[in-house]
Structure formats: structure tokens, C-alpha cells
Design goal:
single chain; 477 residues; mainly alpha; 18 helices
Length: 477
């Protein structure tokens, strides 16, 4: 094993790197505002750490999964490389900077995921390091919360929206990315508080959880609010079920009552604060706009029916035009116009040749001028169109593995898999993939994907342990 990058040194680097995430995001915001430069300290530090992680993957570990990881990364390099080389000649406009930047952002998630997986399957004290990783996320989210509150109090916070809606994103550049970070990290922050609150005197560990929940409704976007609300409901419901099961079995788990009460109080307080939040105002505005749009469409249909201008109901072209979901104005409101960008990229893809269908069309599809490139901002669609069928299969492999193993363990050891504390990691992954699908800014956003990668690895380690325990228990029978 290479002494320059062994597991102990990489573990320390990882813990420091996670804590520094919000600091890097703030420095990115400052550099963009002050220097108007796309090359920021956040990008530089993250690229350097990605390079160190690659070194660790190749030379710094002796994990039993190492050869599979190397095959996986080699396959990614081949597929992405072929796509990049072909698009250099095939695309109407090829911008090397945008193509390479997007490629690096996408590869970042895969490399971090693989490096963390190899680390956790190499180290001896998995539980100890796991708790330290959760602690670093807990500290990072505390930094996010405190800085955003300070920015709001001092009047230096930037606005999440430029018009119509309102919210606060503090000293962070992207409100969408900040919201995604809070959504993915909240269950992990909650989990760390549960681990540390082993007696009533340590309930103070829940204060940062309440503070982070407050931040989620101040940002103003739907993503963090509904993530925290969903987590609060599911955790409370899980503890209720777990409490009932314990009663039926006449078993008693230490501090179960306290955790159940805390989860209930948290849910009630969060719901009570909701009507006074920017998020509530913004969501109410969206609902009002949708209702107005429905009334307008209904009135238009009635007018066309009266005047006979609506065309024959049996006319397939007219019917197709009226029912085109991608052009729905209601869907435009819900998805913030993402459906319109999907239509454009889908048209490019249908017209692309076989090679581009397999290996992708690169960044933003086959746009025709330097002013045209536009992503859908729905990660799975963007990645499918950019890296094709083969690239998408490689991107989905970790998620398919998690789903397959969870289904298997759901039948073998459902109690362990669905324990309330284990559910929080599942929620973090669920929020990350859900946000990636609907709102984007996750899988190809390094500032966000690092948290999803950690959640996936934490769950993978738990799954491997549960699977091992099951086999050993079965062998003893």
C-alpha cells in the first residue's frame, strides 16, 4: 500500500474535506461576485481532492472490492471518452471548455463514491469512522445554518429568487444547490443527533437539527422544505410502529420513548412554523398560478366549443396539440419550464445517429450556436442525453445495486433494514435521487453529490453487514 496515501491519511482528509464544504461554497460565492470568474477556489480544491481520491483508489487501499471498482471506472472512462471524441466531430457546435467541465462534474460523483466505498471496506473500525463522518456532516450543516442566519440578520444575504418569489440563500451562490444539500444532509444530521442523545442531558444535540429545519423553510425553494417535512413524518411514523412492535413483544429499548416524543415535537413545531415561511408563500403562489391556468384553459375550451373554433374532436392533430403534456402551461409552473427544455433535447436525440444514441450527445445536446446550450436541469434526463444509453447504464449501476439489495433484505431481515435510524439513510438517498430526477443540481453538482455519495456508501456498508450477519446466522442453524 502506498504510504503517501494510506487509509488513515485519506480518512483524515475526507473528514476535513466534508467540514470544509460550506466554506468552499461561500468562497465560491465571494469569488464569483468579486472577481466575476468561473474558476473558483471551490472548483480548484474539489478537483485536487478528486485527484487524491483517484490516487487512493489505485494505490492507497487493498479492499476486496478494488478490482471491481477499477473495472467500473475503466468502463466509465472508455464510454465517456468515446462519446467526447465522437462529438468533437459530430456536434454542430463543440465547446471544449463546457464539454470537459460537464464531464469532470459528472465523473466527480462516481470517483467520490468509489473512493469512499473502498475506504469503508478497508478500515477496521467501521462504526467509529462512520460516526465521525456523520459528525463532520453535522458540523458542516451547523456552519451552513449559522452563516445563513448571520447573513439574514446583517442584511447581507443574497435572494434565492430574482423576482416573483422570495427566500434567502445567505452567502451561497445557488439556491437550488443549497436546498439540495440541506435536503440530503438533514436525515444524516438527524441521525447523528439520535446517536449522541443517549440521555436527557444530551438533547442539546437536537438544536442544530431544529436550526437546519428552520433554514429549510427560509431558503424558499420547495425541495428542502418537503424533504424535511417528509423526513419528520416518516421518522415519527417509524418510531410509532417501532414502539408498538416493542410493546407487543414486551421488549424495552433504552430511550425509545424520548426519541418518539422528540420526533413528535419536531414535527409539530415544523408544521406550526410553515405558514410564516417564504416557502409557504412561494408554494401558495404556485398553487394559485396553477388554479388560474386551469380556469383559463377551461374558459378557452368553453369558448372554442361555443364558436366551433376548436376543430373536430376526432381530428388527431388537434387532439394531439391539446393533450401535449410537454407543452402544458401547468407543467411549466410545476417544473419551472424544465419540460420545455426536455422537448428540445429529446428532439435532438431522436434525430441523432446510432453512435450518439449509444454514447450521448455531450453537453446540452446538438445545439447550433454558442448562445444555445441549455440543460434540462433534471439530472437523469441530462445525463441520458449527454452520455447515451451505455453511459446511463453505468451511472445507474450503484442505484440498481442499492435497490436490489434492499429488496432482498426486505424479505430476509425487514426489522433491521426498516429500523427508524436506518430509515434516515434511506431517506437521504431517496431525497437525493428524487431531487436529481425532478429538480436537478445533484449528480453533476460536486458541492451536492458528495453528500449523496456518502449516504450511498453508508447504506452499502450497512447492507453488506446485514447480509453477512444473515449468512452467518443461517450457517449456525
Amino acid at each position: 500500500m502506498n504510504k503517501l496515501m494510506d487509509k488513515e491519511f485519506y480518512t483524515k482528509l475526507l473528514l476535513l474535506f466534508v467540514i470544509l464544504q460550506p466554506v468552499l461554497d461561500i468562497l465560491t460565492y465571494v469569488s464569483i461576485k468579486a472577481l466575476d470568474s468561473s474558476l473558483t477556489i471551490g472548483i480548484i480544491v474539489r478537483v485536487l481532492f478528486m485527484g487524491l481520491s483517484l490516487w487512493f483508489i489505485v494505490f492507497g487501499n487493498n479492499s476486496w472490492l478494488k478490482k471491481y471498482v477499477l473495472y467500473y471506472l475503466a468502463a466509465i472512462a472508455i464510454v465517456y471518452g468515446i462519446g467526447l471524441g465522437y462529438n468533437f466531430f459530430a456536434k454542430p457546435v463543440f465547446n471544449p471548455f463546457l464539454e470537459l467541465q460537464f464531464l469532470a462534474k459528472t465523473v466527480y460523483f462516481s470517483i467520490m463514491l468509489c473512493a469512499y466505498l473502498l475506504l469503508f471496506t478497508t478500515i477496521d473500525k467501521v462504526s467509529f469512522v462512520r460516526l465521525r463522518v456523520l459528525k463532520t456532516i453535522y458540523i458542516a450543516m451547523l456552519i451552513v445554518s449559522i452563516t445563513l442566519v448571520i447573513a439574514i440578520i446583517t442584511g447581507t444575504s443574497s435572494a434565492t429568487y430574482d423576482w416573483n418569489k422570495f427566500g434567502f440563500k445567505g452567502w451561497f451562490y445557488s439556491g437550488n444547490e443549497l436546498g439540495s444539500i440541506v435536503a440530503i444532509s438533514f436525515p444524516l444530521t438527524y441521525l447523528f443527533a439520535l446517536y449522541k442523545a443517549q440521555d436527557k442531558k444530551k438533547i442539546i444535540y437536537f438544536l442544530p437539527v431544529f436550526l437546519l429545519a428552520t433554514i429549510s423553510i427560509l431558503i424558499g425553494t420547495k425541495v428542502p422544505y418537503f424533504a424535511v417535512l417528509g423526513a419528520a413524518i416518516i421518522v415519527f411514523g417509524s418510531y410509532v410502529v417501532y414502539w408498538i412492535v416493542q410493546k407487543l413483544k414486551k421488549q424495552k429499548e433504552s430511550l425509545l420513548n424520548m426519541k418518539l416524543i422528540i420526533s413528535f415535537i419536531f414535527l409539530v413545531l415544523f408544521l406550526a412554523a410553515t405558514p410564516f415561511s417564504p416557502t409557504f408563500s412561494n408554494v401558495s403562489g404556485d398553487m394559485g398560478a396553477i388554479e388560474e391556468q386551469k380556469k383559463e384553459q377551461k374558459k378557452q375550451s368553453e369558448d372554442e366549443a361555443e364558436t366551433g373554433q376548436g376543430g373536430s374532436q376526432d381530428d388527431p392533430e388537434v387532439t394531439k396539440e391539446k393533450t401535449n403534456l410537454m407543452d402544458s402551461k401547468i407543467l411549466v409552473i410545476i417544473l419551472s419550464s424544465r419540460n420545455l427544455y426536455f422537448s428540445e433535447l429529446y428532439e435532438d436525440y431522436t434525430e441523432a445517429d446510432v453512435v450518439q444514441k449509444l454514447f450521448g450527445m455531450g453537453y446540452a445536446g446538438n445545439y447550433h450556436s454558442y448562445e444555445d446550450p441549455k440543460l434540462i436541469e433534471m439530472d437523469f434526463f441530462d445525463l441520458f442525453f449527454s452520455f447515451g444509453i451505455l453511459g446511463m447504464i453505468l451511472i445507474l449501476l450503484p442505484f440498481l445495486f442499492i435497490i436490489g439489495m434492499c429488496i432482498k433484505l426486505l424479505f430476509l431481515v425487514p426489522g433491521k433494514l426498516l429500523h427508524p435510524e436506518n430509515m434516515l439513510i434511506l431517506l437521504s438517498i431517496g431525497f437525493g435521487t428524487g431531487i436529481a430526477f425532478l429538480a436537478g443540481h445533484v449528480l453533476y453538482a460536486p458541492a451536492v453529490s458528495i453528500y449523496l455519495a456518502i449516504s450511498i456508501v453508508l447504506l452499502t456498508i450497512n447492507i453488506l453487514k446485514m447480509n453477512k450477519d444473515y449468512r452467518e446466522a443461517k450457517a449456525l442453524k
